[in-house]
Design a protein that fits this description.
Layout: E1 8-14, E2 18-24, H1 34-49, E3 55-60, H2 71-75, E4 101-105, E5 108-110, H3 112-119, E6 122-126, E7 130-132, H4 146-154, H5 156-163, E8 168-170, H6 171-177, E9 182-184, H7 189-201, H8 205-221, H9 223-237, H10 241-252
Parallel strand pairs: 2-3, 3-4, 4-6, 5-7, 6-9
Antiparallel strand pairs: 1-2, 7-8
Helix pairs in contact: 4-5, 8-9
Family: Belongs to the enoyl-CoA hydratase/isomerase family.
Organism: Gordonia hydrophobica
Protein name: Crotonase/enoyl-CoA hydratase family protein
């Protein structure tokens, strides 16, 4: 890759159906370069398009999630920050996957780190996590979704309390706000994220995708659209092999063996 090989994003597969996407630019506190953002989008797209992958864990190496963007590389005079709009958007502002994503954070989780965490579906924080949406303190404003995802997660008052002050808050506060769903000791955070992905993958993948898609329909278009999506759920899920397996496993009192079809 370019930019003096500063930082990389990798994808590995565990337990057959789980993609683990890892950001690694530890020397710069996992600050994102444009190439890293493009790599991340490419890996998310590969995950989205591979039917054998049912859930993803999005995590970062080292002690910190990210210090944010490598600002000169994104906004300097020679910046080249474009990402192919046909790829899955790490901020879920464009193309979005219907597959479940578990985000795992630790240490400094600043600006885009929060926004990409909130673009996922479930978040696990190490007890070392410290959060800050710092844009207004830097003379700019959030561009990756914080301006509305803070609202959908925690309401107007709490959103403005943190967005407008650019303060720092800890993992317990993030749990209280609903930004993260669990706080675990540092060192256990990635394993816990993978464990949650395993729990998700024990269920029917067509069902989990349909559930996420229908929930997104509500966020995008409101209650009536979400109600209309019920017929789509019926046609895509209730005629599947996994549906029949779920019923049969219940009758036979055994764990279901889903195939994603």
């Amino acid at each position: 890759m370019g930019e003096n090989n500063a930082g990389r994003v990798s994808l590995s597969i565990t337990d057959e159906h789980i993609a683990v996407i890892t950001v690694d630019n530890v020397a710069k506190m996992n600050s994102y370069t444009p190439d890293m953002m493009r790599e991340l989008a490419a890996h998310l797209t590969a995950f989205d398009e591979d039917d054998s992958l049912w859930a993803a864990v999005f995590c970062s190496a080292g002690e910190h999630t990210t210090a944010g963007l490598d600002m000169p590389k994104f906004f300097g005079p020679d910046a080249d920050a474009d990402v192919d709009p046909g790829l899955v958007d790490p901020f879920a502002l464009g193309r979005r996957t219907n597959k479940p994503i578990v985000s795992v954070v630790q240490g400094n989780t600043f600006t885009v780190g929060i926004e990409m965490m909130l673009a996922a579906d479930i978040a696990v924080a190490a007890d070392t996590a410290v959060f800050a949406q710092l844009e207004v303190a830097r003379g700019i404003a959030p561009l990756g979704g914080a301006h509305f995802r803070y609202l959908t997660r925690t309401g107007w008052g709490n959103a403005m309390y943190h967005l407008l002050r650019a303060d720092k808050f800890d993992a317990r506060r993030a749990l209280e706000l609903g930004f993260v769903q669990e706080v675990v000791p540092f060192g256990q955070h990635i394993d816990r994220g993978i464990e949650l992905a395993r729990e998700i993958c024990a269920n029917a993948p067509l069902g989990t995708r349909a559930t996420k898609a229908a929930a997104l329909r509500y966020l995008d278009e409101g209650e009536q659209a979400a109600i209309a999506a019920i017929d789509e759920v019926k046609s895509s899920v209730f005629t599947s092999h996994d549906f029949m397996e779920g019923i049969q496993s219940f009758i036979e009192r055994r764990p279901a063996k889903f195939q994603g079809k």
